[in-house]
Every structure is written in C-alpha cells, then in structure tokens.
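Hi W.,

Here's what went into the run:
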Amino acid sequence: MFKAIVSASTLQDALESVSVLVDECKIRLNEEELAIRAVDPANVGMVDLSLEAAAFESYEADGGVIGVNLARLQDIAGMANSGDLVHLELDEETRKLHIEIDGLSYTLALIDPDSIRQEPDIPELDLPAEIVLEGAQIDRGITAADMVSDHIRLRVDEAAEAFSIEAEGDTDDVDLNLERDDLIDLTAGPADSLFSLDYLKDMNKAIPKDAEVVVELGEEFPVKLHYSFAEGMGNVTFMLAPRIQSE
Amino acid sequence: MEFAAFAARAEAIEETEADHATTVLVAALLADADGDLETVVRFLLGRVFPAHETRTLDVGPALCREAIAKAAGPNVDTADVEDRLADRGEIGAVAASYDFGGQRGLAAFGAGNGTHADGDVDGSGPTVADVDGTLRSIAAAAGDGSEGTKLDTLFGLFNRIDPPAAKILARLVLGEMRLGVGEGTVRDAIAEAFLATDAATPSDAGASGTDGDGRREDAGQDDENGEPVLTATDEDVAAVERALQVTNDYGRVAAIARDRGRPGLADQRLVVGRPVQAMLAQAGTAADALAEWDRAAVETKFDGARVQVHYAPSSPTSPGSTASTASAVDATDGIGPKLYSRNMDDVTAALPEVVELVASRVDVPVILDGEVVAVDEDGDPLPFQEVLRRFRRKHDVDRMREEVDLRFHAFDCLHAGGEDLLEAPLETRHDRLREVVPDLAATLTIADDVETIETIERRALDAGHEGIMLKNPDSPYTPGDRGKNWLKRKPDVETLDLVVTGGEWGEGRRASLFGTFEVSVRVDRAGDGEEAVHADRRFEPVGKVATGITDERLASLTDQFEPLVRSEEGTTVTFDPAVVFEVGYEEIQRSPTYGSGYALRFPRFVGVREDKDVTDADTLERLERLADAQ
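Here's what came out:
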C-alpha cells in the first residue's frame, strides 16, 4: 500500500539527485520514509536518499518496494508548477503508479524491482577531513575545472587551513582556494584525492546552490557529499570513488 | 575462468598461424573452460548470444570508443581514441594501448554493490562469467537513458582490466575477434577436445581421417612437419557438425559434446522457433549436375529474399480438437508463424501477409525454407530491390504492404508434424512440402537430360525469374553448407559476339516471328588479299540461340531481320550478315554439325550489339583458342 501527496518541487529535487547516476532505481516505501539507494553501472558513484514522511503533505506506506524508470517519472513531475501538489498512489493489482497533478492523471508502468541492480552498501569511512560549504561554491569550482580538464583534485591544506579544488588540463590549470573564513566550517585533516569530473558534474547538478554541503575527504579515498533539502526532511549522500593519482 | 586468462589464451591462438596448431590450442582452451565453456565458445566466435537468438549486443563503434576514452583518462577524449584508431587500424590494438583502471571502484572501499561477484577489489579483474553477465545487461538496457547506462557499464568493464584483456574485450564488444578462429576451427576443436577418445577404439581406428590410428595419446605430438596431430576422426567432426546444424548454437553443442558425448549430440533435434542456417548453393553447370547425379531436381531460382518459416499451430489437428498428435508437438505448441531472414533476423513483423498465409494453410508444426518475391499487378516478379523495401521494415508496414505485393514460394521442408527431415532426401522433403502447403510449394521437376533443363530454364526466364537451381534429388538438407548438392546454374562463363546468319520461323503463336537464330563466327582467310577478304568474307555457324527471348523482343528482332532475308526454305531462312548478337554459353564443344567444327553448349541470347559491326565479331580463331583453354 502506498498513497502520498507531496509538493512538486520536493519530488523533483529528490528524483534529480538519483537520476544523475542511474536511469532506473528501486524506491523503498517504508512506513516512516521514502528511501532510495543506487550505484552507477560502473560502480564508481552512488547515492543514498531519504525523504521523511513529514516532508509529504500526507504519506501512507507499508514497506513495499517499487522499481521505476526515473526519466519517465521526472518527465511527469516536470508537468507540475512549483506550487502544485503531486498525488501518488500505487495500484497493487496492476503494479502501476497513478500520478495526479492538477487534473492531469498519469499511469506509470513500474519495473520489476528484481530486474534492477542491487542496492549498494554504504560503509562508515571515518574520513579525516570535513569541509562545510555552500552548493554555489562547489558549483563554481566544478564549472571552472570543467573548462580545462576531465578530472579534479580535492585537497585540504592542513597548515593553511584551506580547501582547494584544482584541475590540471593538457595546457591550462585551474585552482579554487577557499580558506577557513570562506567556508561554513572546516575540520582539517590529511586529505588529497583525485576524482572524475564527469561524475562530480552530475552530482553537482542535483545539489541546490543554497544548500549547506558537508564534504568528507581523505587521502586517495572516496569523497562523500551530504546535503539536506525539503526543509531538512530530505537527505542526500553522494559517494564517489577516487581516481588513482598518477604522480 | 578469469577474463584475463581467457584473453591471454586468445592472444596465443591469434599468434598461431598453422591450422592444426590453432585447433589444438582452441581444444585445450575448451577443455579447461569448465563452467564457462558455452561462454568461452561464443566469445571465441565474437558472440555474446547464440546465432539463433535475435538478441544482439547492439554496441556501436562510437559507444565503444567513448567507453575506451572514459576508461583511459585523464584528459583522453573520443577524438584521441579515434586518432589512435586511424593510426593503429584496429580497435583491439587501440584499447590495449591505454592503461585502464585509473578510476577506482567503490567496492575497493567496501561500498557499492555486489554485482561483481568476484568482489571487484582493485587488481582483481572480472571473470569470463562477469564479462558475459555485464555484456548481457548492456544488451538488455533499453529506453530512456539507456545509452548512458550502456556507456557507464562498458566503461566500468574496461576500467577493471589490463591492456591484453582490453584488446580482446574491445574486439568482442564489436564482434570482430580476428583470432583466425572460424566456425570450422571451433567445430574441429570441440570434436578434438571432447570426442577424440570415443574414436580410439579398434573398430573406428581404420575410419580415422587423420593418420589411421586416431589415438588420444597422439595429442600434443607433432608430425614430421612440426604440425600437431589431430586425433578426432571425421566421424567425430561430423557428429559435432550435425548437432551444430540442428541447434545453431556452438556453445551449447560444446557443452553437450563434453557432458554427453556423441550420443548426446545425436539426440539434438530441430526446434520450431529456433532458426537454423540456410542451406546454400554454389555455381555449377547443368552438365556438372547430370554428370554427378545422373538426374537433377530443377526449380525456379527466385529473385527474392530467403525466408525460413517456423510455425507450430496451437491446435495441431482440426479446429476444436484438443488431441495432440505427437509429443514433439506439445513441446512446440503454439509458436509463430515466425519468419527469419538468411541472417536469422526476425522479419515476422515486416511480412504480415506471409504470416497470415502460413497460418491459414498449415495445420501441423513445420519449418519451411523459401523465398519471398515482390510481384507486379499481374503477378510477375519484380527485382530483388523491391523485396528489400519490405524486408527490414519496422514502421509503416501496412502502407508498404499496399505498395509492394509479395509472393511466398516454399521450396523445402525441414520439419513437419514432429518429424525432422534434414536427413531425408530432397525428393522426400519436397513430397512433404507439397502435403503441408500444396499451393505454396514451388514446382520441383526431376530431369535427366539437358534439353529438359534448358526448357525449364527458358520458361523460368520468360516468366521473369532469375534462372534455375539444380539440386541433387537424393541429398539431405545441410544448414549453412555451401556444398555441391545445390547449384545455381552458372551464369555463362563468357560471351561471344556472333554474327546472325540465319533463322527459323517460330511455331504456333510465334509462327509470324523468327523463333531461333543461327549465329556464326567470322572466318578470316589469312593470306588473301585485302580485296578478297571483303569479297569473300565467310561466316561459319556455331549454334542456334533461342533462350531468353521474350515475345516483345522477338517481334522487334523480326522487324529488324525481315529486310535482311536472303533466302527462305520452309521455315528456315538465311540472313545477310549484318547484325551481331552477344551470346552466352557454358562450354565450347567440338562438333561435326556446324561448319565451324564447334558448337556452343547452352547458347543464350544476351543482347544485340548495336555498337558492333560484323567486322568486329569474334573469329573462328578466337573460338578455337577459347575451346583449347577450357
């Protein structure tokens, strides 16, 4: 059983954070929250999303799992104006999701959850450095890096208490240096890792510019990016495996 | 088996040039493949799915290059990969030229998912089964966003392997293995790996096609030329070949050969709904056919597209009856009609009228072989290109159905009513065909003389068909085999430009037309003076042409020749030598009948050489040279 009403913008934000990595996913309709975990086909980037029942206008669920094509669901959600409410109801018999937006009703065929890639494990990595900054700052660094390269180096200078986003291209280089004062918070520690810009760009697309983003970083370790949306009742954690630093 | 291990052995096979040595290496690989045997066999042939499946990987070169670029980073893009491809010429070499693995996987950090059953720890590569599973998931990806999923999946695979494995993977993805391992090699290797011991019995030893010994102990030894000795007998190979023909699945046959031996292979049967390769023909002459078989089955060669029909009606007896006639029927209850092209693509949707036709005519399970031909309003055949407009159509099928009319001619029956007929003689199969689809069966005529064959050919050509097929009436149906049992009647080897020196009025309907023409070579009298040549140019006949001339054509030729009539006696006329025909033939024979001393076998009118004057016609001297060269 699943029946819920949610604001279009909350639904759109939630879907965006997953669709940047995969085109199909399982959605867990738990009693207390809606939850999605997914990993990209190359097993390099993953997302963990939860949206509390309180983030919905109304929410009734009993722990089922459905499989959806995200692009389709996003297309439908995109039909709503930002103030609209989206009504969602699962038809258990036909295994279809009925969606209603301001008089528009849509029936979405679901995908057998067993045919979707297994949900990823999320370990506690206990990463030594933690940087808290605005989504807009990450966006600035990534946009600049993308001009010169297809990979990006995230690094903490412990002595200078600074976080830097660096990109090295065939000819040109980019470096965005953010000192403690520029950041919301910084827990300095040994942290220096290289990442594929392809993946970070995709994750960055989903991160709201005004969100407070917690970046956990280590040396040659995956990065974790955490942020909240829907007034703190939605939570997203991205995790991205590093590239090997050639030097 | 680790994919890297498979790749290393594939590379060793690629480096081996000698056929026997290649077969021995492939056989050893198959013997070591254990649970991955079916996959290994398919991979060697550059396939993920068996040939009879219409599923394909569907990864294009562009996607493959993009995945390579992504795995090769940092700062390698598709254009860089394309540059290297232009340089090295082959995708495998390009893939091997990069160092993949720069991107680490989440699994190395205890994260991500367990799709990679081997743990996907950095440094441990995928197994053959992992690669197979991953490629199958790429094939299954469809719909919105699937291109990105395919790319990421392929990138993830490249990212986990080293250069030698990347070389093999890139080739596999594009289906171009370039190992020098063909289907025949795999067939021989299956026999060598799994059947050779069966042959090592005294009774079989004499029949061995190798060295008359055929013992397993010879394996790995070399003969005096340094080539390894193969121990599988011709019978072993034939058993594998037969199973391959009926199943059309190399991987499966390898596993059956290993697990159940020759008895298991012999148990394999055709399955309605699983297409087999079409039997093919080679070129041959009527004379060859009769010399070899004494009599030939002659049928029209249709200028269309080959179609294999698979159909098991859901109610095998009369409508309303619930009784099933044979157990084999139950197994294939209610399939099709399905139509497959020569390449085993499913063309059912494109040809609805053939589907309807078969469904309305057939009431037992069948596998039929035939040809679909486009026809005009009068039912006369149209060129092959017209069929093609219909054949691979996915959209607008109904509209095209209105535009291009099709006829289906069934000419062979591989299976009927639960009975496999591959090994039955052609005549028997054709009898069954006529029982099953009386009004769709193409006519098969048994002929034992060239005149009959010639008549049938003339009729076929007159009706606008491509020509005739000559088949051995006693031969089995051998899928995929371009053997000597089916012959496309050879197009004439060469043509001669001959002077028309005489003719005959036709008979009956054609009484007012010239029906046949006497054609002659030019005979120059060397040594005569220039003037004498002109005065006494002579022509000597080499045969008469009639075949392939339509009424329309005959009428216009009659108009052209009437003014040239020099003398007339009964229905026979002589012409002033003025017109040159291009004439095809099968052979030049010595003959006392004609003044030239030669006769053309199966002379055929090709066209009027309007551009040629009689002085340009071929000479007796050239004819003699051609005859000597035959």
